Amino acid sequence: MADLEIKRVPFLGAELMAARDPENQIWAGVRWMCDGIGLTRNQRDNQIQKIKADKVLTKGARNFPLPTSGGNQEVICIKLDYVPLWLAKINITPKMERETPELAARLEQYQLRAKDVLAAAFLGSPAVEQRTITTDDYLRAASIVANCRNERLPYVLGFLEKGGLELPEIRKMDTTAFKLDPDEFVRELIEGREPSERGYLFNVDEFNCYCQTKGVSSRMAKRYLYSKGYIEAMKEPGGKMAYSVPIYINGKTRRCVVVRPLKSIGNA
The CATH number of the domain where 261 resides is what? Predict the structure, then answer.
Protein backbone atom coordinates (compact mmCIF):
# COMPACT_ATOMS: atom_id res chain seq x y z
CA MET A 1 0.00 0.00 0.00
CA ALA A 2 1.87 3.02 -1.31
CA ASP A 3 0.13 5.60 0.86
CA LEU A 4 0.81 3.73 4.10
CA GLU A 5 3.03 5.65 6.54
CA ILE A 6 5.33 3.16 8.27
CA LYS A 7 7.46 3.85 11.34
CA ARG A 8 9.85 1.94 13.55
CA VAL A 9 9.12 3.02 17.11
CA PRO A 10 11.72 2.49 19.88
CA PHE A 11 10.21 1.26 23.14
CA LEU A 12 12.00 -0.16 26.19
CA GLY A 13 15.00 -1.37 24.21
CA ALA A 14 12.94 -2.94 21.43
CA GLU A 15 11.76 -1.62 18.07
CA LEU A 16 8.04 -1.76 17.29
CA MET A 17 6.69 -1.58 13.75
CA ALA A 18 3.57 0.47 13.17
CA ALA A 19 1.71 2.10 10.30
CA ARG A 20 -0.83 4.84 9.68
CA ASP A 21 -3.37 4.35 6.89
CA PRO A 22 -4.99 7.04 4.68
CA GLU A 23 -7.89 7.30 7.12
CA ASN A 24 -5.42 8.33 9.86
CA GLN A 25 -5.84 5.04 11.74
CA ILE A 26 -2.70 3.72 13.47
CA TRP A 27 -1.92 0.00 13.35
CA ALA A 28 0.65 -1.95 15.40
CA GLY A 29 2.51 -4.93 13.96
CA VAL A 30 1.62 -7.84 16.24
CA ARG A 31 4.82 -9.83 15.72
CA TRP A 32 7.00 -6.88 16.78
CA MET A 33 4.88 -6.27 19.87
CA CYS A 34 5.20 -9.93 20.86
CA ASP A 35 8.96 -9.92 20.23
CA GLY A 36 9.36 -6.75 22.28
CA ILE A 37 7.49 -8.28 25.22
CA GLY A 38 9.77 -11.32 25.04
CA LEU A 39 7.33 -14.00 23.89
CA THR A 40 8.69 -17.08 22.14
CA ARG A 41 7.83 -17.76 18.50
CA ASN A 42 5.22 -20.33 19.54
CA GLN A 43 3.71 -17.88 22.03
CA ARG A 44 3.68 -15.20 19.33
CA ASP A 45 1.91 -17.52 16.86
CA ASN A 46 -0.57 -18.41 19.60
CA GLN A 47 -1.35 -14.73 20.18
CA ILE A 48 -1.95 -14.20 16.46
CA GLN A 49 -4.39 -17.10 16.41
CA LYS A 50 -6.16 -15.76 19.50
CA ILE A 51 -6.60 -12.35 17.88
CA LYS A 52 -8.08 -13.96 14.76
CA ALA A 53 -10.44 -16.10 16.85
CA ASP A 54 -11.58 -13.36 19.25
CA LYS A 55 -14.95 -11.86 18.27
CA VAL A 56 -13.91 -8.37 19.38
CA LEU A 57 -10.22 -8.28 18.55
CA THR A 58 -10.72 -9.62 15.03
CA LYS A 59 -12.71 -6.47 14.24
CA GLY A 60 -9.58 -4.44 14.88
CA ALA A 61 -7.14 -6.67 13.01
CA ARG A 62 -6.04 -6.74 9.37
CA ASN A 63 -2.99 -7.48 7.26
CA PHE A 64 -0.63 -4.83 5.95
CA PRO A 65 2.58 -5.10 3.89
CA LEU A 66 5.36 -4.22 6.34
CA PRO A 67 9.14 -4.53 5.92
CA THR A 68 10.62 -7.71 7.39
CA SER A 69 14.02 -9.39 7.12
CA GLY A 70 12.64 -11.18 4.04
CA GLY A 71 11.35 -8.00 2.40
CA ASN A 72 7.85 -6.54 2.48
CA GLN A 73 5.34 -9.14 3.68
CA GLU A 74 1.67 -9.16 4.58
CA VAL A 75 1.60 -9.34 8.38
CA ILE A 76 -1.21 -9.07 10.89
CA CYS A 77 -1.62 -5.72 12.60
CA ILE A 78 -3.98 -4.52 15.29
CA LYS A 79 -5.65 -1.12 15.40
CA LEU A 80 -4.27 1.17 18.09
CA ASP A 81 -7.56 1.38 20.02
CA TYR A 82 -7.60 -2.40 20.34
CA VAL A 83 -4.02 -2.70 21.62
CA PRO A 84 -4.84 -2.29 25.37
CA LEU A 85 -7.66 -4.84 25.15
CA TRP A 86 -5.44 -7.37 23.40
CA LEU A 87 -2.58 -6.92 25.88
CA ALA A 88 -4.95 -7.11 28.86
CA LYS A 89 -5.99 -10.56 27.67
CA ILE A 90 -2.40 -11.81 28.11
CA ASN A 91 -2.45 -12.75 31.78
CA ILE A 92 0.48 -12.18 34.13
CA THR A 93 0.30 -15.53 35.91
CA PRO A 94 2.06 -16.59 39.14
CA LYS A 95 4.09 -19.05 37.06
CA MET A 96 5.20 -16.24 34.74
CA GLU A 97 6.12 -14.05 37.72
CA ARG A 98 8.10 -16.90 39.26
CA GLU A 99 9.87 -18.34 36.20
CA THR A 100 10.16 -15.34 33.84
CA PRO A 101 9.81 -12.16 35.93
CA GLU A 102 11.49 -10.10 33.20
CA LEU A 103 8.72 -11.08 30.78
CA ALA A 104 6.07 -10.27 33.41
CA ALA A 105 7.63 -6.85 34.01
CA ARG A 106 7.85 -6.10 30.29
CA LEU A 107 4.27 -7.20 29.68
CA GLU A 108 3.03 -4.92 32.44
CA GLN A 109 4.81 -1.93 30.88
CA TYR A 110 3.40 -2.75 27.44
CA GLN A 111 -0.07 -2.97 28.95
CA LEU A 112 0.39 0.43 30.60
CA ARG A 113 2.28 2.41 27.97
CA ALA A 114 2.51 0.88 24.49
CA LYS A 115 -0.60 2.58 23.09
CA ASP A 116 0.57 6.03 24.21
CA VAL A 117 4.07 5.53 22.79
CA LEU A 118 2.75 4.42 19.40
CA ALA A 119 0.25 7.29 19.27
CA ALA A 120 2.95 9.83 20.10
CA ALA A 121 5.18 8.52 17.29
CA PHE A 122 2.55 9.43 14.68
CA LEU A 123 0.82 12.39 16.26
CA GLY A 124 4.11 14.21 16.72
CA SER A 125 3.46 14.90 20.40
CA PRO A 126 5.90 13.15 22.72
CA ALA A 127 4.08 14.88 25.58
CA VAL A 128 0.85 12.98 24.87
CA GLU A 129 -0.91 12.35 28.16
CA GLN A 130 -0.11 8.89 29.47
CA ARG A 131 -2.23 6.71 31.70
CA THR A 132 -1.76 7.55 35.38
CA ILE A 133 -0.02 4.82 37.36
CA THR A 134 -2.38 3.61 40.07
CA THR A 135 -2.11 1.74 43.36
CA ASP A 136 -3.22 -1.43 41.56
CA ASP A 137 -0.29 -1.01 39.15
CA TYR A 138 2.06 -0.89 42.13
CA LEU A 139 0.38 -3.97 43.58
CA ARG A 140 0.96 -5.87 40.36
CA ALA A 141 4.58 -4.74 40.33
CA ALA A 142 4.95 -5.80 43.97
CA SER A 143 3.53 -9.20 43.08
CA ILE A 144 6.16 -9.62 40.35
CA VAL A 145 8.92 -8.61 42.77
CA ALA A 146 7.61 -10.88 45.53
CA ASN A 147 7.78 -13.92 43.25
CA CYS A 148 11.06 -12.99 41.56
CA ARG A 149 14.21 -15.05 42.10
CA ASN A 150 16.94 -13.13 43.91
CA GLU A 151 19.43 -13.31 41.04
CA ARG A 152 16.92 -11.65 38.69
CA LEU A 153 15.67 -9.03 41.11
CA PRO A 154 18.07 -6.17 40.15
CA TYR A 155 17.12 -6.49 36.47
CA VAL A 156 13.39 -6.60 37.21
CA LEU A 157 13.54 -3.61 39.58
CA GLY A 158 15.53 -1.65 37.01
CA PHE A 159 13.00 -2.43 34.32
CA LEU A 160 10.03 -1.42 36.49
CA GLU A 161 11.81 1.84 37.36
CA LYS A 162 12.42 2.51 33.67
CA GLY A 163 8.68 2.07 33.17
CA GLY A 164 7.91 4.94 35.54
CA LEU A 165 7.27 3.03 38.77
CA GLU A 166 8.98 4.35 41.91
CA LEU A 167 10.99 1.65 43.68
CA PRO A 168 10.30 2.93 47.26
CA GLU A 169 6.56 2.66 46.54
CA ILE A 170 6.98 -0.94 45.35
CA ARG A 171 9.14 -1.92 48.31
CA LYS A 172 6.73 -0.58 50.93
CA MET A 173 3.88 -2.74 49.61
CA ASP A 174 2.99 -5.63 51.91
CA THR A 175 3.68 -8.54 49.54
CA THR A 176 2.91 -11.34 52.01
CA ALA A 177 -0.51 -11.90 50.45
CA PHE A 178 1.03 -12.61 47.06
CA LYS A 179 2.88 -15.62 48.49
CA LEU A 180 -0.10 -17.36 50.03
CA ASP A 181 -1.73 -20.39 48.43
CA PRO A 182 -5.17 -18.98 47.56
CA ASP A 183 -6.82 -22.41 47.31
CA GLU A 184 -5.61 -23.44 50.77
CA PHE A 185 -6.39 -20.00 52.20
CA VAL A 186 -10.00 -20.15 50.98
CA ARG A 187 -10.55 -23.81 51.91
CA GLU A 188 -9.62 -23.07 55.52
CA LEU A 189 -11.71 -19.90 55.51
CA ILE A 190 -14.92 -21.64 54.35
CA GLU A 191 -14.43 -24.88 56.32
CA GLY A 192 -17.68 -25.76 58.14
CA ARG A 193 -19.48 -22.84 56.50
CA GLU A 194 -22.73 -23.25 54.57
CA PRO A 195 -22.83 -21.28 51.31
CA SER A 196 -25.71 -19.05 50.29
CA GLU A 197 -26.97 -18.83 46.71
CA ARG A 198 -24.44 -16.05 46.17
CA GLY A 199 -21.50 -17.83 47.75
CA TYR A 200 -19.85 -17.85 51.18
CA LEU A 201 -20.65 -14.61 53.00
CA PHE A 202 -18.30 -13.02 55.56
CA ASN A 203 -18.76 -9.68 57.22
CA VAL A 204 -15.76 -7.44 56.78
CA ASP A 205 -14.57 -7.66 60.40
CA GLU A 206 -14.75 -11.46 60.33
CA PHE A 207 -12.69 -11.65 57.14
CA ASN A 208 -10.16 -9.15 58.49
CA CYS A 209 -9.72 -11.20 61.69
CA TYR A 210 -9.09 -14.34 59.65
CA CYS A 211 -6.42 -12.53 57.63
CA GLN A 212 -4.81 -11.35 60.86
CA THR A 213 -4.50 -14.96 62.06
CA LYS A 214 -2.72 -15.76 58.79
CA GLY A 215 -0.35 -12.82 59.12
CA VAL A 216 -1.44 -11.11 55.92
CA SER A 217 -2.89 -7.70 55.15
CA SER A 218 -6.65 -8.04 54.65
CA ARG A 219 -6.58 -5.28 52.02
CA MET A 220 -3.86 -7.02 50.01
CA ALA A 221 -5.49 -10.43 50.50
CA LYS A 222 -8.79 -9.17 49.10
CA ARG A 223 -7.11 -7.59 46.08
CA TYR A 224 -5.10 -10.74 45.44
CA LEU A 225 -8.05 -13.12 45.85
CA TYR A 226 -10.17 -10.98 43.54
CA SER A 227 -7.44 -11.02 40.88
CA LYS A 228 -7.51 -14.83 41.04
CA GLY A 229 -11.30 -15.03 40.85
CA TYR A 230 -11.96 -16.18 44.43
CA ILE A 231 -14.07 -13.25 45.64
CA GLU A 232 -16.49 -10.72 44.20
CA ALA A 233 -15.83 -7.00 43.87
CA MET A 234 -17.65 -3.96 42.57
CA LYS A 235 -16.69 -0.60 41.14
CA GLU A 236 -17.92 2.31 43.24
CA PRO A 237 -19.24 5.56 41.70
CA GLY A 238 -15.84 7.25 41.91
CA GLY A 239 -14.22 4.38 40.00
CA LYS A 240 -12.56 2.79 43.04
CA MET A 241 -12.80 -0.99 43.39
CA ALA A 242 -14.54 -2.27 46.52
CA TYR A 243 -13.77 -5.82 47.60
CA SER A 244 -16.81 -6.10 49.86
CA VAL A 245 -20.27 -5.83 48.35
CA PRO A 246 -23.72 -4.90 49.74
CA ILE A 247 -25.83 -7.97 50.54
CA TYR A 248 -29.46 -7.88 51.74
CA ILE A 249 -29.68 -10.14 54.84
CA ASN A 250 -32.64 -10.44 57.22
CA GLY A 251 -34.15 -7.13 56.19
CA LYS A 252 -30.85 -5.21 56.31
CA THR A 253 -28.13 -4.38 53.78
CA ARG A 254 -24.64 -5.32 54.95
CA ARG A 255 -21.20 -5.14 53.39
CA CYS A 256 -19.81 -8.64 52.95
CA VAL A 257 -16.80 -10.33 51.44
CA VAL A 258 -18.37 -12.83 49.02
CA VAL A 259 -16.23 -15.92 48.46
CA ARG A 260 -17.15 -17.91 45.37
CA PRO A 261 -17.58 -21.70 45.64
CA LEU A 262 -14.24 -23.28 44.69
CA LYS A 263 -15.75 -25.37 41.88
CA SER A 264 -16.95 -22.20 40.14
CA ILE A 265 -13.64 -20.33 40.22
CA GLY A 266 -12.20 -21.91 37.09
CA ASN A 267 -15.31 -20.81 35.22
CA ALA A 268 -15.43 -17.28 36.60
Answer: 1.10.10
